[in-house]
């Protein structure tokens, strides 16, 4: 079950409709399908676009902590050097098959 965060920003709390409300809903829909690290990188990009106070506002929109968003910004600024690219693929079964094959070829 994926829960979608409801934006807590001032614009979404007001009763009149505003174009930002739909955008914030879309952001949270998108975020609900991302994994933990992708969430903070996406939030970090949005926070950067907003400029001053961006991390605080993005925290309200996404429900991520400002601390998490700052971490995302820090990681992006460091070009994600310590984040493995193939993290998701490692869980697949493909790698084991390759290991077995190389073992067999060694025995021959
Ligand atoms: Zn909002």
Per-chain topology:
Layout: H1 10-13, H2 19-32, H3 36-50, H4 54-62, H5 66-77, H6 94-107
Helix pairs in contact: 3-4, 3-5, 4-5
The structure holds zinc ion.
The site of zinc ion has 8 residues, from helix 1 and helix 2.
Tally of structural domains:
1
What proportion of the residues form beta strands (DSSP E)? under 5%
Low-confidence stretches: none
How much helicity do the residues have?
A: 55-70%
Bound molecules: zinc ion
Alpha plus pi helix count: 6
Overall outline: globular
Number of strands: 0
In round numbers, the mean pLDDT is 85
Radius of gyration (CA) equals 20 Å
Output the structural class.
mainly alpha
H/E series, N to C?
HHHHHH
The biggest beta sheet reads: none
Give the terminus-to-terminus CA distance: 49 Å
List keywords for this structure.
108 residues; single chain; mainly alpha; binds zinc ion
Can you tell me about this structure?
This protein has helices at residues 10-13, 19-32, 36-50, 54-62, 66-77, 94-107. It is mainly α and 108 residues long. It has one domain. The longest helix has 15 residues, at 36-50. The radius of gyration is 20 Å and the shape is globular. The model has no long low-confidence stretch (mean pLDDT 85). The structure holds zinc ion. Residues 7, 9, 11-12, 20-21, 24, 61 line the site of zinc ion.
Describe the structure concisely for a colleague:
The protein is mainly alpha-helical and 108 residues long. Helices cover 63% and strands 0% of the residues. It has one domain.
